[in-house]
Amino acid sequence: MTRRTTTPSAARLGLRENAGQFALLVAVNALVGGMVGQQQTTLPLLATQEFGLDGYAFIFTYIAAFGVTKAAANYVAGTLSDRIGRKRVLLAGWLFALPVPLLIIWAPNWGWIILANVLLGINQGLAWSTTVTMKVDLVGPKQRGLAMGFNEAAGYGAVAVTSLAAGWLADQFGLRPAPFLLGVAYTILALALVLFFVRETRGHANLEAQAHANQAADLTSAQVFGLTTWRDPSLSSASQVGLVNNLNFGLSWGVFPLLFASRGLEIAQIGILIALYPAVWGAGQLLTGWLSDRWGRKRLITTGMLTQAVGMAVIALSGEFLGWAFGAILLGAGTAMVYPALLAVVGDVAHPAWRGRAIGIYRVWRDLGYAFGALVGGLIASTLGLTFAVWGAAALSLVSAIAAIVRLRETNPR
């Protein structure tokens, strides 16, 4: 049976030509990010203060569970979006989000928190990967970096705003249930937007495919996996850098709240520090996505990883609020340089016929970084202390930057 490749007669590529649907998908991705932000400040504190957990490796299991399931869901999202369409996968992702905040609110033990994060990982993998693919479909090759800048700025800006809001709610009303009512509202709103207003975008991908000749279109999933994981220098470099980048985020998610709390900061202050990282990350991508279309992808990616290494070192060396804030700003700036450029690299190289799978596989490796960050951070923190875990992330960021300098090719079609 041959898959249909018809293109809607009204389909046009470009950000301006698809402004309404593009803006709607930006809003949906902001809600995806908000689902992570509701728990960033609160869950490590919930583990120690309400559940009495004291082993870092065990506490961070919820981040590892999130990262592994999100990575697997990314692969499923890429495969299904190429086969059955983008909108159905996006809707399924939000259905998995429904129980997440309720499980956390009612959790009698830590196992419920881990289950909630398994479902959250599925939600993030299906929903975030699909909004990325849909935006790339809509804008075409000329504004790919800018499109990814908008997408990631919305998602991680929402992580920051929701982290800050959840920290304030926890400080005013307690760790449960107030912060997680945000997730209930986000899920209901997202389901309504996707069900009634988001439109399918595979027709736009088919339109671009008619003029796309840089790769063969009839690749198997195994071939796409090989290209994205090791065979293609640019795709595999993107996967490697993405993994280390999210290792930093996963480690910060678990380590930073406990590190700051151990030095006497209040929950509201911790919320501000936790929000700074994704706030700078989110806002900065509006600029860096645009710059990657003009300056190229490689210089932003390598400079961004070096900046993250410095940011981690500053946090490890500091012992007070202002130093930690400066380190978080550096981390956010470095991540802003990297994130949209990496997605643009995958969009540059991948043929529209297997773009969804390539994005999904790249995001498999990238989001396994959450799990590695949680496991590595937990083990180092348990044996050597929280500060040494931060130093470990700084060293890995430096190694990642050097590897990208050596292996990553410039992929900007300009």
Give an overview in words.
By secondary structure, the protein is an all-alpha fold. Helices cover 80% and strands 0% of the residues. The chain is built from 17 helices and no strands. Helix 5 runs antiparallel to helix 9 (178-196) and helix 16 (355-383) packs antiparallel against helix 17 (386-407). The longest helix has 30 residues, at 110-139. The protein is globular. The chain starts with 18 loop residues before the first helix and ends in a 7-residue tail after the last helix. It is found in: Cell membrane. The chain crosses the membrane at residues 20-36, 56-77, 89-107, 113-134, 146-168, 180-198, 241-261, 267-288, 300-318, 324-347, 368-384. This is MFS transporter. Residues 22-412 form the Major facilitator superfamily (MFS) profile domain.
